[in-house]
Structures are given as structure tokens and as C-alpha cells.
Design a protein that fits this description.
Strand content: 15-25%
Number of helices: 11
CATH topology of one domain: 2-enoyl-CoA Hydratase, Chain A, domain 1
CATH superfamily of one domain: 2-enoyl-CoA Hydratase, Chain A, domain 1
CATH architecture of one domain: Alpha-Beta Complex
CATH class of one domain: Alpha Beta
Shape: globular
Radius of gyration: 25 Å
Distance between the termini: 27 Å
């Protein structure tokens, strides 16, 4: 998903780990004859290539190449890569504590530094560009995963070279700096929360890992305590959430749905594999919800958004999601390596296809940079009564019309979600518009 601004949390898997499905181990007819061809080529390379080659390297390369003929989410994982994938779903890893975006061209831009981590203590900031790790430039591509390069055993040393904006002593516009850090155990919360105003909470789920459902429950309790009254609205923020554990997306959906299908999976030939349903116990059914999504909301995030949308449980606001509606199973192999293999497709409760199509929001709201928004406001400014000379003074505005201070003004989509919830609270939650309902019908 690098071409779609995939966020790479250093030491933190953002891929979708799917449900466990029954896998056939029977060899297709004629496959052994074709394996003779593979053995013949392997033998020719080993005996005749101009330089001596390692058999294990050749076989791993062949398997990796075979997986690359499949969809982009199926892959072969070396023993170290497979161990990291399995460990990352716990939300703990050995690393330096930065979240980056792949900008291509061998550079990674830092989009977030986790507090109280080696990166934060070393002064790495949002906007810094990482160009090399341990003296080796970042090339990018399938064989150069910066996640693997920056992660490692706690206590080990890593050196990153940064490019920062500014002017150095020689007058260069970019300043290069090398920073040495010692890796530590990094613990990442899947959910972050804040109170936008009394009664309206904001929960951002960054990915679905172990205990995400418990963190969302913790967030709801904390928001209610801080608000000192039951929540009148919740912004469930799934923007830039690239996925994670299938079962955690189901469990979070179950927190807000009393009954009905959450998601269904179908395998080869449309064969039904699994269907997850909601239970009434423990459901927070009374909280109005606006669910925020964007083009980087993928996989498990799309399962949750689609379930809430199909059950008319939330208004989905933002832009169309990524469209990754496939299930990956992690399959261990004898030597400690493994496969991440696509085995099924997801479908929403109403049978809509997520794969390629994504989830269309009920209310399309593009994200507008704060500077552009302020410039548009200034250019559209008109003269008001209060600007006229000798205008009559008015009474103090009513509290109903006043808008309380908010920290969401620099985040246009979040501000629109907050205002939507305020309107619902004042006038009562409206039924979904026919246009919104029509787009939720199953795909033909």
C-alpha cells in the first residue's frame, strides 16, 4: 500500500492477519511433473552458474518469486520476518519508536514520534527524512523493508541518517545528521482518545492488534468519566488504519451492534467459510456514532466501517476507503519461515464486496489543510452588520448558538464529525438519507 501512503510503524505490523481457514495440502494432478522442471533448473544453476551459489538462497528466491505471481498481499516471509509478523500483533516490539510514510526515492518521512522512546529522546521530529540505516541507503521495494531495518533486539545499536529542512554552515538548504540510538521494547496503544467537548468523545484506532477491543472499552469508560455524563456522541476514527487482526475488528464492531451479521468470508468459488455475528451482551447501543474513514482505511478497518454502516449504526464520513477486502492466513513452515496467503474475501452484512470497491462514505468530506481552509475563509469574508459604523449593539448571543472552543479546527474532517454529532444531539438523530441507503445495497 506504499503508493497509497501506507503508514509503516517501525516494528509494528500494519498488514491484515486473517482468519484461520482449512487449507488443502493435496498436490494438484501433474504438479510433480512440473516439480521436475524446477529441480532441473535448480540443478543447472547450481552446477553451471558462473559463481558459486547458495542452495537455500535459490530456493527462498524461487518461493518468493512464486508468491509474487499472486495478489500483492500474499508473500513469503523469512524466519525473521515471520517471527516479527507474529510478534507485532501483540503491540510490542524492539525498535526506536517512529511512525513513517514511504515517500519513494529511498526516503522515509517521519509522521509521528512515540513519546518516551529512543527516537523522541534523540530529538527526531515530524517531517524529518530518514535516508539510511546503519550506513546503508534505503532503496525501497520488496527486498528492502525499512520496518525490518529499524527494528531489532532490544539493547542493540542503530544509526539513522536524517535530512532536515534548514540551512547548514555551507549554505545547503538540507541539513544531514546522523543519530545513534539503542533499541528498546516499544509498546504501542492501538486506541487513543480525547474529549472533543462535554458529551462528545473521539476514539482513534490506529490498527487492530491484541486487546484493541479492551482499549476501546477503556476509552469509552474514561470519556464517560471525564464528561461526567453519558456520551451524547462518539467519533470513531479509522483514518489511516491499515488493518490488523480480523477477530479484533469483529470484537470492536460487537461493542456497538446488538445483533446481526458483522462480516462474512467466502473462499475459492464463492464457498462460504465463516460468518461472524454480534451479541447483545456488552453492547453500547445508545451512543450516536460518526465513523471517520479515508483512502488509507483498509482491511479490518473496512470490516468495522462496513458493518456499522450496513446496520445503520453509524454515519460514515470522509472519503472512500482503500478497498482491501481479502483474508490472509499466516502459515508456518518447517524451517521457521512462513507464508502470508490470501485465502478468502470479506463481505459486509448486506453482502457488499469490499475488495477493490472499498466503503463509500455516507457523507463525503475531503480533508482540507488548515492553511488552505483559513485562506478560503479570508477570501470569502463578507461585511457584516457588526462591521458597519454606528451599528446598534445587540444582546449577548444565546448559548445555543455559540460554538464552544474545540481542538479540532485544524482537522477539517474531525470538525465536521463533531458538528454532525452536535446537530444530532440538538435535533435528534435523523434517519439516513435515501441516497445513503441506496449505496448500501449488495453489489450485483
Amino acid at each position: 500500500m506504499s503508493s497509497q501512503r501506507k503508514a509503516l510503524v517501525i516494528g509494528f505490523v500494519a498488514g491484515a492477519v486473517g482468519v484461520t481457514c482449512a487449507l488443502s495440502l493435496a498436490a494438484p494432478r501433474g504438479s510433480f511433473r512440473r516439480l521436475d522442471l524446477f529441480a532441473r533448473v535448480l540443478s543447472l544453476v547450481e552446477q553451471n552458474y558462473v559463481e558459486e551459489v547458495n542452495e537455500e538462497t535459490l530456493i527462498q528466491g524461487a518461493v518468493r518469486g512464486m508468491m509474487r505471481t499472486l495478489d500483492p498481499h500474499s508473500s513469503y516471509l523469512t524466519p525473521s520476518e515471520f517471527a516479527e509478523v507474529r510478534a507485532d500483533t501483540d503491540g510490542e516490539f524492539g525498535g526506536v519508536g517512529v511512525e513513517v510514510d514511504d515517500t519513494r526515492g529511498g526516503r522515509l518521512i517521519v509522521r509521528r514520534t512515540l513519546p518516551d522512546t529512543p527516537a523522541a529522546r534523540a530529538g527526531i521530529s515530524v517531517g524529518d527524512l530518514i535516508v539510511s540505516v546503519d550506513g546503508k541507503p534505503l532503496v525501497g521495494g520488496a527486498d528492502d523493508d525499512p520496518t525490518t531495518r529499524l527494528r531489532g533486539r532490544p539493547g542493540t545499536r542503530v544509526v539513522v541518517e536524517l535530512v532536515r529542512s534548514g540551512t547548514d554552515a555551507a549554505g545547503q538548504k538540507e541539513v544531514r545528521e546522523s543519530i545513534a540510538m539503542v533499541r528498546e521494547i516499544i509498546r504501542v496503544r492501538a486506541a487513543e482518545w480525547s474529549l472533543l467537548e462535554p458529551g462528545i468523545g473521539h476514539i482513534r484506532i490506529r490498527q487492530f492488534q491484541e486487546r484493541t477491543d479492551a482499549e476501546v472499552e477503556e476509552a469509552l469508560a474514561a470519556l464517560t468519566r471525564e464528561s461526567k455524563k453519558p456520551l451524547a456522541g462518539l467519533v470513531l476514527d479509522l483514518r489511516d488504519n491499515p488493518g490488523g487482526l480480523f477477530d479484533q475488528a469483529v470484537r470492536v464492531a460487537d461493542l456497538f451492534l446488538e445483533s446481526g451479521v458483522i462480516v462474512a468470508t467466502r473462499g475459492r468459488g464463492g464457498r462460504h467459510l465463516e460468518q461472524e455475528t454480534a451479541r447483545q451482551a456488552g453492547t453500547h447501543a445508545a451512543i450516536p456514532i460518526v465513523c471517520l474513514v479515508n483512502g488509507d482505511s483498509a482491511s479490518a478497518a473496512e470490516i468495522l466501517a462496513g458493518a456499522l454502516q450496513d446496520h445503520d449504526r453509524a454515519l460514515v464520513l470522509g472519503t472512500r476507503t482503500f478497498g482491501k477486502g481479502s483474508v490472509q492466513s499466516l502459515i508456518p513452515l518447517e524451517d521457521g519461515s512462513g507464508l502470508k496467503l490470501t485465502v478468502a474475501r470479506y463481505f459486509t452484512p448486506k453482502g457488499r464486496v469490499i475488495q477493490e470497491h472499498g466503503i463509500d462514505p455516507d457523507l463525503v468530506v475531503e480533508q482540507i489543510p488548515a492553511a488552505d481552509l483559513e485562506a478560503a475563509r479570508r477570501s470569502a469574508a463578507t461585511e457584516r452588520e457588526e462591521d458597519l459604523e454606528r451599528h446598534l449593539s445587540g444582546d449577548k448571543p444565546s448559548s445555543v448558538a455559540a460554538t464552544p472552543p474545540s481542538t479540532t479546527r485544524t482537522d477539517y474532517q474531525l470538525e465536521m464529525a463533531r458538528q454532525t454529532l452536535r446537530a444530532w444531539h440538538r435535533f435528534g438523530q435523523p434517519p439516513l438519507r435515501p441516497a445513503a441507503q441506496a449505496q448500501r445495497e449488495p453489489a450485483p
